[in-house]
Amino acid sequence: MTIKEMQERKRELGYSYAQIAELSGLPLGTVQKVLGGITLTPRYDTIMALESVLGEEQPMAVRESARPYNVKKQGEYRLEDYYQYPDDIRMELIDGVIYDMTSPTSAHQIISGFIHSKMLQHVLNNGGKCLPMIAPIDVQLDCDDRTMVEPDVLIVCDRDKVIDRCVYGAPDFIIEVLSKSTKKKDSVIKLNKYLNAGVREYWMIDPDKKKVIVYDFAHDEYPIIYGFDAKVPVGIWNGDLEIDFAEVYDHVRFLYERQKE
């Protein structure tokens, strides 16, 4: 069903937002934002929950209302808690711990978008089957209910891992663009998670220090550190693609120069 069809169905049934929230198990705020047209791209699970209430078949019984902000100890959260948060709140779930995610900076978005475009073009030019993807996309890294991450850029070469709601399992390649608020998580917690989950290659891009830290988990024990003047080979493609970070920097140079003014 489209959002417009759901809105019309709501009027036909005479349901209030509160009734829909109770029947669907969704937070009231999420129901209001989706059916009110505020959230333009709701999660797949949210759409399915709304369709279960507003579809042609009526629910047989009222489900127990889900509490969107269950207070638990860090380490006890599960995917059911993760999915109860409104769609416009960005977060990650790692080993049962909820991590809030701040909005990315302009430099962050330009860098990740530029690199993703180069990787996508490489696949298109060479007829490859790997899928370069860019945030926001959920990754159920360990295929369990305790971890759901959102890398900035990723490549998945096993298309069976790509399902409607997320990437189910470890991607082959991941990039995280570091920020002050995420540096510790990306360089320690997620580094170890990616290594243990079976990610083959992991890049950490530090815009402040103009460094690229590359982990080739499949071959090397120690990382290689590049500057923003280097061409960095994509290891999972045997170096057939190199990302020219001098070119990357040219696209964000104006932001650095503005900071000096």
TrEMBL record:
InterPro entries from the UniProt entry: Lambda_DNA-bd_dom_sf (IPR010982), Nuclease_put_TT1808 (IPR012296), Restrct_endonuc-II-like (IPR011335), Uma2 (IPR008538)
Pfam hit, one: Uma2
GO molecular function: DNA binding
Gene3D superfamilies assigned to the protein according to its UniProt record, in alphabetical order: tt1808, chain A
All residue ranges annotated as the Putative restriction endonuclease domain in the record: 79-222
Record's keyword terms, sorted: DNA-binding
Domain of life according to the entry: Bacteria
Name used for this protein in its record: DNA-binding protein
Organism the protein comes from: Mediterraneibacter catenae
